[in-house]
Amino acid sequence: MVNTVESLVDDWSGQLRPGQREIAQWRGGLLAVSAVPGAGKSHGMAVGAAIAIARQRLNQQQQLVVVTYSRSAAASIKVRIRHYLNQMGLPRTGFSVQTLHSLALKIAMGAPNWRGSAENLLSEYEQQRLCRRCVDQWARSHPDQMQHLIQGMDTQPPIHSEQLTRRHALISSILTSFTKTVVTSARSAFLTPAELRQLSHHPAIAADPYPFLEIAADLLELYQHQLYEREQIDYDEMILAAVQCLDANASYRQEWQQRVYAVFEDEAQDSTPLQSRLLRLLATDVMDDRIVNVVRVGDPNQAINSTFTAADPLFFNAFCDECAQQNAFYTMTQAGRCTPLVIKAANYLVEWANHTYAQTEPPFRPQDIQPVPPGDPQPDANPPAWGQGVELVYPKTIFETAHELAVRIARVFEAHPKATVAILVRQNKQGHFLADLLRSPADFGLNHNLPSLGITIFDVAGVERRSHVPEELFHILQFLYCPYSPDRVKNALTVLVERGVVPPQNLDRLAAQPEVFLYPGPLDPPATAEAVQAQHFCHGLLQARLQLSLFPLIAYCAQRLGYDAAELATTDRLIYYLSQSQEPQLWERLAPIWQGIVAENTFEPVDMEDLHSRYVRPAQVTILTMHKAKGLDWDAVFVPFLQAKNLPGDLWVPANARFLGEVDFIAVTRAQIRAHSHGQPIPNYQEAWRNAAAAKTAEEYRLLYVAITRAKRLLWLAAAQQAPFWPSFDWHHHYELQPQAPCPFLPALQQQLAKWLSPIRGDR
Ligand SMILES: Nc1ncnc2c1ncn2[C@@H]1O[C@H](COP(=O)(O)OP(=O)(O)OP(=O)(O)O)[C@@H](O)[C@H]1O
């Protein structure tokens, strides 16, 4: 067995890059790998994990725990590790892949005397309500401070009606969001209410116009008290609870340490100190606490969560320094994913942004991506470009952007029918807007129709937001119980087309006259072949509706939609949930409950093993946010709407909070807590505001860097000359377009492109 493993390790080592090889050769202790995008971090980690599992003969009793930050990343790494274990003929039991939160939940729930339970886990919505309750309570018990806030920057108290308006804004929105921010930042930085209060007396902030840190301490205290009283926990608390359970109970800690041989962490740049502490505790050897088996891989240049969570690349950098002192730190600068021109564009972004923002917060660690040398193990490494490789356009409007995009995508599929393609947007709303335009171009006067070419438009946010299994089945069932409603026919057909069980076609035409679509008479015009297919499919479902009772009918529909195992398991969970909710189990009774599940998106799907593969599929255009695109890649990547207002955008003060002054005190307080947790001097409010703005800009450019480095062969960037003024407006209902400047990186890149693409001119 050992020999087989070692000979396979030798074989595989020949297929690994430096950095990956070190992970494969790891035999315990700390190890850090910092690598550029596409260098093969996740790949190296999967191979390394499989080898460690084989070497240590890990099993159900003692496992290697792989931690990631998103479900899709977890699914993709699980598949890779299983692949290598299969090659070694080993069972799949020696490891588990988890998101950090599910791991923490397991630890906290298993602890003796732990007061919480999964049912007590606060949803986002409930957390919001709890924050609001704390604010109400605080406002009642602090009338003087409330009055001080209501007066804002005015020298005199405002008139009565204005006071009421401000009070309402403070309670319902400003202080409620403030509470949420404080709760997350302070607890991640291990700050107790008492410590926060102490911090609020710091002389550096004595002249700040409002005592927001003191208010933060009050609100944090109230929030924690309320959680305790209600025996509830929230996501952050779960991690804190897990750490506390392990800290407080030696035998429980040892139980876990015995169970966990090592922790491998992907995307480690997104880790918070609290999370790192949890992982270290778990990975400490049960017999000797000087031995800590932790492997962390990450890329500080891809840190894109630090402005809305307590994550910060600084912590991963510190870990890298610690490992460097033990000669256990490696960097990987070669990457085979992208065509050379895309690499040049990404490197230029690093150089340009660090130069442009040298005075504030340089966004990147200066580090160039290099193409891999000849003979690299990756097949088709640094592939040749499609088209120009990097293309940059300035369409007149957001509509023209959609049109140009469709034209270019159609050309990609014409030349490469099996291409994988993604459109990356900054905000979900932009994604929905594009999805609608691309799905129904005629409605918007566009004459390029991707669905008619057999190309699926897959709007990730749309699907995920709706938690697709409950929503898809809901639409089908709604149709089956009311087949003559045009809306329901359209919704059901949309699901059927998205699932690929009915061919794409003009659904509005079918839905407009449901009886003609379902049961055409002799005088009706002949249906197209696609419509007949859709009709037969619907007849099958309607037939089942007459023969089956509700729950078997739901299961039948799930089968007909071609659900995979995880989706079928999710359907089972849904049926179970519905069966527990209401008697008698009739559609009319259950429909409102089901609709609630869809609206609140609270239903937890069964872990989707191949969620990842849904994002990257041939003959599909995947629309998703830049954040969600992390860790994935496609042949062609389109990044529209790169107007300056959209990226990097600005920090701004919401209109209802302007009476407090020219800065957003939520961002200010967060920046003050951030500085403290980094061991830096605490900044006053003006400096904290500048820091917050610089941190946002820096992170936006890292986000653009992530987007750019997803492209293997073609990167298409666009900035519309006219777009909605506020990127956050609902693009469906706000068509008032205004002139917009492009993201300042684009003109700079354009100049470079001109040089790179015409070497003679460039040389001059
Ligand atoms: N040694 C290797 N042999 C073959 N293919 C490899 C190797 N290393 C990486 N690859 C391939 O290169 C691509 C990028 O690898 P991977 O996704 O692991 O990179 P990454 O560093 O995690 O990227 P990012 O940080 O941008 O998400 C993948 O398609 C992967 O299969």
Automatic annotation (TrEMBL):
A Gene Ontology biological process term: recombinational repair
Domain UvrD-like helicase ATP-binding: 14-339
Catalytic reaction equation(s): Couples ATP hydrolysis with the unwinding of duplex DNA by translocating in the 3'-5' direction; ATP + H2O = ADP + phosphate + H(+)
MF terms (GO), sorted A to Z: 3'-5' DNA helicase activity; ATP binding; ATP hydrolysis activity; DNA binding
SUPFAM superfamilies xref list: P-loop containing nucleoside triphosphate hydrolases
Sorted UniProt keywords: ATP-binding, DNA-binding, Helicase, Hydrolase, Isomerase, Nucleotide-binding
GO cellular component, one term: cytosol
InterPro entries: DExx_box_DNA_helicase_dom_sf, DNA_helicase_UvrD-like_C, DNA_helicase_UvrD/REP, P-loop_NTPase, UvrD-like_ATP-bd
Enzyme Commission number(s) of this protein: 5.6.2.4
Designated name of the protein: DNA 3'-5' helicase
Taxonomic placement: Bacteria, Bacillati, Cyanobacteriota, Cyanophyceae, Acaryochloridales
Region feature (Disordered): 360-383
Pfam families: UvrD-helicase (PF00580), UvrD_C (PF13361)
Domain UvrD-like helicase C-terminal positions: 359-631
Family classification: Belongs to the helicase family. UvrD subfamily.
Biased composition (Pro residues): 371-382
Organism: Parathermosynechococcus lividus PCC 6715
Record: residues binding ATP: 35-42
